[in-house]
Design brief:
Layout: E1 10-14, E2 19-26, E3 32-39, E4 43-51, E5 54-61, E6 68-70, E7 73-75, H1 82-94, E8 96-110, E9 113-127, E10 139-146, H2 147-155, H3 162-173, H4 175-185
Parallel strand pairs: 3-9, 4-9
Antiparallel strand pairs: 1-2, 2-3, 4-5, 4-7, 5-6, 5-10, 8-9
């Protein structure tokens, strides 16, 4: 569930995905300024390991934008848990189902942009033969890439999400998470 705006704020815009609220804030000098808060749906990102050394990555194209590389993931729909959204997005974007989905990092932004995001480690993957539901606003090519190649992409900032790059680089350096991963690959 998206992080709520301040209780004294007023809704000034409601779009398809975003809501904007405004609230007066007293400054340190005593003056008052209007602050804005963007509320957006929560999101998920999935690090889907085919093998301990190979991970799924997507190359995506959306109307009106340039193509980009990204890990599978997307918006948490109303009524979904973050894990349900991660499982759905993985199938929609790659055609793979995860036997195991482990949440590894969750954070919430509570400033002018407000939402929560969860990163998952997906293992025990099986291909279901179809990418169900990649919507008409997405062209997605699924890539199977070795970890060193993804590390290099992160170092060159080639992926769309900076937080996902940071989380991935931390993931592969974290012995506890690697140990959890190894249990599921046995």
């Amino acid at each position: 569930m998206p992080i709520s705006p301040p209780t004294d704020s007023k809704l000034v815009f409601e779009g398809v995905r975003y809501k904007i609220f405004q609230a007066p804030r007293v400054q340190f000098d005593g003056s008052t300024k209007t602050f804005e808060y963007l509320i957006r749906p929560d999101s998920v990102t999935v690090f889907a390991f085919i093998t301990p050394d190979e991970i799924l990555l997507t190359e995506q194209l959306h109307p009106g934008s340039e193509s980009f590389f990204d890990f599978p993931g997307g918006q948490v729909d109303k009524g979904e848990t973050h894990e349900e959204a991660a499982r759905r997005e993985l199938v929609e974007e790659t055609g793979f189902q995860a036997g195991t989905m482990i949440p590894i990092w969750r954070y919430g932004l509570k400033n002018s942009s407000r939402f929560e995001k969860t990163f998952f480690l997906a293992t025990d993957l099986s291909e279901d033969g179809s990418r169900r539901g990649a919507d008409c606003g997405e062209k997605i090519r699924v890539l199977r890439e070795p970890i060193p190649k993804i590390i290099e992409r992160c170092r060159k900032y080639e992926l769309r999400q900076l937080d996902a790059m940071l989380c991935f680089l931390n993931l592969i350096q974290d012995p506890e998470i690697v140990r959890k991963f190894s249990k599921h690959q046995a």
